[in-house]
Specification:
- By secondary structure, the chain is an alpha/beta fold.
- It has 8 helices and 8 strands.
- Strands 1, 2, 3, 4, 5, 6, 7 and 8 form an 8-stranded parallel β-sheet that branches.
- The longest helix is centred in the middle third of the chain and has 18 residues.
Length: 230
């Protein structure tokens, strides 16, 4: 993952900027420009999402952890990495996880015009479908949380903009125990959690997920998909 703006993401926090488009009346499964950061159900539900994969080492390990604990997640795929490791995308899809468009080159699109955004998102979805023909790509996540005009473009393409309620800064690995602590202290009922399976060594993230899932399940937490629309 390219990191210069990581500190900016933390400084902005997990809140969705108020200036972004709000939801409009829509059919039950129609994407809207509203950025969702919640699960489909209220209460003690969480949605785990993983950015910047696929990674040939960490993603398969993470998939094994999720399978062991019977949890489904959302994978926000970086197009360049999809082209390099299509077999890993097929593993993700075969395991029943949800796919999300995370742009082709992980660029900051905050100032891009709609035509450039659409071209990038179309290219990214195309390479995902080259790996998994007919794949459903229901979500889009902007790199660095720099949304600009991407929500309206993604929604017009049928992809719901996907934000997060909790980010634990795992792009700079602080140790497995610290990641577990940040998860435990940062999660909120009905919140989407931002994690990473690509862009670097994510061993600590995989270990933290393996540790935290059974702990949370024992406390009554359940795992859910992100909300389908705003």
């Amino acid at each position: 993952m390219v990191l210069p703006l990581a500190a900016t993401v933390l400084a902005l926090g997990s809140a969705v900027p108020g200036s972004l488009p709000t939801a409009v009346p829509a059919r039950a499964d129609q994407a809207t420009p509203a950025i969702v950061d919640s699960t489909r159900h209220e209460g003690k539900f969480l949605s785990l999402t993983f950015d910047d994969g696929p990674d040939p080492v960490n993603t398969p390990k993470l998939l094994a952890v999720l399978q062991k604990h019977h949890v489904k997640a959302t994978f926000c795929l970086w197009g360049d990495h999809v082209k390099q490791h299509p077999e890993v995308v097929r593993m993700i899809a075969a395991a029943g996880h949800t796919l999300c468009n995370h742009t082709m080159h992980h660029d900051d699109m905050g100032l891009w015009n709609t035509e450039a955004i659409r071209a990038d998102l179309e290219e990214t979805s195309a390479v995902i479908r080259d790996a998994v023909p007919g794949a459903e790509i229901k979500y889009f996540r902007a790199p660095y949380g720099s949304w600009g005009r991407t929500p309206e473009v993604a929604a017009a393409m049928g992809m719901q903009p996907l934000g997060w309620a909790t980010a634990i800064g795992d792009w700079e690995p602080p140790g497995t125990a610290e990641l577990v602590r940040r998860l435990r202290e940062g999660i909120t009922p009905g919140g989407v959690v931002l994690l990473h399976d690509g862009g670097g060594d994510r061993t600590q993230t995989v270990e933290a997920v393996d540790q935290i899932i059974p702990e949370l399940k024992s406390e009554g937490w359940r795992f859910d998909k992100p909300a389908r629309r705003g």
